[in-house]
Specification:
globular, 34% strand, 160 residues, four-stranded parallel β-sheet, 29% helix, alpha/beta, 5 helices
Length: 160
């Protein structure tokens, strides 16, 4: 049994490094902010990001904590929900490859995996645009959480 379990938002970070604020100004996004975006804004950002080098990474508080612990050799597992889409598959593959138990990861055909579009700057500053319209990680319900995954856990990390 895994000793450390994380339950929380299952999301993918899409990272792009910006040279300056020009792109944010074009998109109407304030620098240093965290915005919830709709389908139209996601499409605008995707159009711009498609012309740039981007990097996909797993994200979310619980996911990041569990990922770090797994990299240090701890027995870990993750409980969450993703869409049955490209990004959900990316997240599942990435955490399985590191050795995180994905028995608690659920997939949903009716919603999307949460995306965090992260705009980073050479000085390390960043802003976030979260696409949550509708998304799987908000749809995880108690019937989908297997109690036996948690019972013998030594550390339980709950992140939002």
């Amino acid at each position: 049994m895994d000793k450390i379990i994380g339950l929380g938002n299952a999301l993918i970070d899409v990272l792009a490094t910006l040279k300056d604020d020009t792109l944010l100004d074009e998109l109407g996004l304030p620098k240093g902010s965290m915005q919830l975006i709709d389908d139209a804004k996601l499409q605008q950002i995707n159009t711009k990001f498609s012309q740039m080098k981007t990097h996909l990474a797993t994200g979310g508080s619980a996911g990041n904590a569990i990922l770090g612990l797994a990299c240090l050799g701890a027995g870990t597992g993750f409980i969450g929900k993703v869409g049955n889409d490209f990004f959900g598959k990316q997240l599942e593959d990435a955490i399985k490859e590191i050795g995180i138990n994905v028995t608690g990861l659920r997939k949903d055909d009716k919603v999307h995996t949460t995306l965090a579009l992260v705009h980073t700057y050479p000085d390390g500053d960043r802003d976030f645009s979260f696409y949550r319209n509708p998304v799987a990680d908000l749809m995880l319900n108690k019937e989908e959480v297997q109690a036996e995954l948690i019972k013998e856990t030594k550390i339980f990390h709950f992140g939002t």
